[in-house]
């Protein structure tokens, strides 16, 4: 009987530990999880809205245009840095953290519209074009944006705790480390935009729709 009770206690301890570990894992990575969730929601919304609202004007905006290398690079860089800059601004805002996940949702919305555009208008060929020319760069960019969002969330939350809750967290809140990471993310985004431009212009004559 004692042995049975001992085994039951051990099982309860193991179950509690596993539950705690899962909760801790979720809590530590909730910003990443929420970002993926909102991105998927944006993908679905963008696809459905394009299907309902497609027209010539929208098609012209979403279609691939024949631009020079410099024009395409500037456009890619501008688009990539826009959401990155917004994530930084929300991170520096007192109440930015509740709205931070709108960034991956907007990115998902834009990507969903593009996917729907190429699939509806070009069928299988459009899907192939999306996989080769769009998806790889969106994946790289989304990864950097999620890391940026996670850091901005912590900054905004810390600002809120210091200002509103009057908590003293100066030891944890090192602005220099955050600044270094932002610079690294900016450099990576620059490289992604450059690489995207090089691949697009190089393969534009081969991969066409």
Overview of this structure, please?
It is a single chain. The chain has 209 residues and is mainly α. Helix content is 82%, strand content 0%. The chain has six helices and no strands. The chain has helices spanning 2-28, 30-53, 56-62, 69-91, 102-163, 175-203. Helix 4 (69-91) packs parallel to helix 5. The radius of gyration is 22 Å and the shape is globular. 26% of the residues are buried. The model is unreliable at 4-9 (pLDDT under 50).
Task: Please outline what is shown here.
With 209 residues, the chain is mainly α.
Mean pLDDT comes to 82
What is the radius of gyration computed over CA atoms, rounded to a whole number of angstroms?
Answer: 22 Å
The succession of helices and strands, N to C, reads: HHHHHH
Helical proportion?
over 70%
Count of alpha and pi helical runs: 6
Shape: globular
Judged by helices, strands and strand pairing, the structural class is mainly alpha
Approximately what portion of the residues adopt beta-strand conformation? under 5%
Biggest β-sheet strands, sense, barrel: none
Gap between N and C termini: 74 Å
Tally of extended strands? 0
Low-confidence stretches: 4-9
């Amino acid at each position: 009987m004692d042995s049975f009770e001992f085994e039951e206690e051990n099982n309860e301890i193991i179950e509690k530990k596993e539950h705690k570990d899962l909760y801790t894992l979720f809590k530590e990575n909730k910003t990443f999880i929420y970002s993926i969730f909102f991105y998927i929601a944006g993908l679905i919304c963008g696809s459905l809205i394009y299907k309902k609202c497609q027209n010539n004007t929208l098609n012209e905006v979403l279609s691939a245009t024949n631009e020079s290398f410099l024009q395409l690079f500037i456009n890619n860089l501008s688009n990539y840095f826009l959401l990155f800059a917004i994530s930084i601004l929300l991170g520096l805002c007192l109440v930015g953290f509740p709205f931070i996940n709108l960034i991956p949702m907007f990115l998902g919305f834009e990507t969903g519209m593009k996917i729907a555009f190429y699939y509806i208008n070009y069928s299988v060929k459009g899907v192939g074009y999306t996989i080769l020319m769009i998806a790889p760069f969106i994946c790289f960019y989304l990864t950097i944006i999620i890391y940026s969002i996670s850091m901005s969330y912590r900054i905004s939350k810390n600002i809120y705790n210091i200002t509103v809750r009057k908590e003293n967290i100066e030891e944890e809140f090192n602005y220099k480390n955050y600044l270094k990471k932002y610079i690294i993310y900016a450099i990576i985004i620059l490289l992604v935009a450059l690489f995207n431009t090089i691949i697009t212009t190089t393969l534009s004559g081969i991969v066409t729709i």
